[in-house]
Amino acid sequence: MKSVPRRLLVLGGGSAGVELAQVVRRLGGEAVIIEGADRLLPREAAPLGDALSDALRRDGIELRLGMHAAAVRRDGEEFVVEFDGASEVRGDRLLVATGRRPRVADIGLESVGIAVDPKGVHVDEYLRAGERLWAIGDVTGIWPLTHVGEYEGDVVAANIAGEAHPANYEAVPRVTYTDPQAAAVGALEAPYTATALVSEVPKTATYTHAYAESNGFLTLLSDGERLTGGYALGPEAGEWLQQATVAIRAHVPIDVLADTIQPFPSFSGIYDTAFMSLRMNIADKPRPATPMAAQMAGLST
Question: The whole model's pTM is what?
Answer without folding.
Answer: 0.88
